[in-house]
Task: structure prediction
Amino acid sequence: MKRHTRLVLVLSLLLLLLAALSLVTGRGGQWLALPSDEAEARLLRLILWELRLPRLVLALLVGAALGLSGAVLQGLTRNPLAEPGLLGVSSGAALGAVIAIYTGLGFAWSLSIPLLGLAGAFGATALTLALGGGGGVLVLILAGAAVSALMLAGTALVLNLAPNPYAAYEITQWMMGSLTDRSWHEVLLAAPFVAAGVVLLLSTGRALDALGLGELQAASLGVDLARLRRRVLLGTALAVGAATAVTGAIGFIGLLAPHLVRARVGHEPGRVLWPAALCGALLLLASDLATRVLPVQPELKLGVLTALVGAPFFLWLVWRMKRVAP
Amino acid sequence: MFARIVCAAALLAAAPLTRTPAAEAAPQRIVSLNLCVDQLLLQLVPPERIASITWLSRSEGDPELLPLAQRLPVNHGSAEEVLASHPDLVIAGRFTTSATRRLLQKAGVPLLEIDPATDWEGIRRTTREIAAAVQAGARGEELIAAMDADLALLRSRPAHAPVRAIGWGGAADDVPGRDTLFNTILETAGAINLGARATGPASFDIEQVLRVQPQVLLRGAAYAAAPAMRNQIAAHPALRQQHYSVITYPEAVYGCAVPRAAALAVQLADELDRLRQKP
Result:
């Protein structure tokens, strides 16, 4: 308990530090200069309040959603490779959002973007769980891969049919994931759904702990497995679906965060949840900060950076699994 | 529609009559594979000598040439399409696919590849190059003379403080920088291109756009009717709260080495003058 509390404290402190850093750092590592006249002060307020603050809030929300859902999915599947991206949740959300954007529906009615994102996430998660839910770890991962492929095919189709050639370019950019130029509008769109999803996911801790002992043991402890699965499905689709709908696909945070904290708090899934959420937010914020500071032109996309860091970790994880369980 | 067909038929029927002996050797079935070449070709030769232009010119070309472009056959850049129209000259941009190049070579069709130009001298060069290839040298010189007249007109105008401008279409978009025709047009029209700190295209986020404090945001008007994120970007609250004017411009002409670019520079200069007079 003490180690758990200490970790949460340390992560929160780091998060505060990075949040402050993120507010004063612009693209190209540009710091905030103190304004010398009224016009500059106005510009500074505008940049801080309308650009950097919503971007920061979104980074925290989305990072926490990804980290937490990764931890819950790993607990539910008892598989260290599970994450929202691998189960098709992210690509389902992306498909929904892309449909909303490129039919023009998203511009006529802005709520349609997160709503279709959610619908896509729900559809994809439900399909993955239906296909691979009862069949063990390998079947679940394969089901996730198949569903991801289906969702990506759908996205490619929408792109193919988009009437505006810029749309194809934009959506490939958008699929790379980014927090650049988001506003409070996006925060308000995503926040209610993400918050509901996070609350739902955090409530699964005890059931996941019981499940860690085995399905029969969990059932004997009074855990309703079907209900737990539905709750995880709903929570993940809400949190990740809404997050992806406003930021584009950002992978590997959900995979990395739980692993990074597990070394400190142990393997009980319930204890991993809070630290994983904080760690996810920390990772995403640090990545976003890196995309701004790294001298790359054009801007390095957030999702590209997380994938560059996350994919080698994934490889290492597979390599280690192979060694531990030949 | 029927009137259009009749009109085209009339043009085709008239073609052999107007053909002079000197034009006998001139290419009569010209295919263009490049949006910019389209704009020049439409001004250089009569439409009956054009076998096809790119499909882009039907919607994204020079607004003044759209009615003409919409009457002509179009291609989508595929080698098969081009060969099927039996061209006697193909004009393309510098980046023709090697497959198309090989096929044209096999079929014995001459291919002219045009380098993009970024300044007035480059436009003169390109115009003469294409005019020579289609044997319309005199028409080419007419176009260049009109361009030079426009440029002289701009030089003779009283000098004003340059207007701070940036070309910016949204997050996924590039900002035209130095060494672009966009930059040349802006400077000729009496504006400072705030994107010029980078060579070629740069990318700016909204914060960077706000920081350079533009008086004018120049927005490309390509595909404005079809939904895309770039058409929504001005809706960002940070941009809505800042004071600047928006001028939309035909991207095809600002990015194409055609003499008409000078006429557009005059148009832009007029718009900038109107802005200066606003309180």
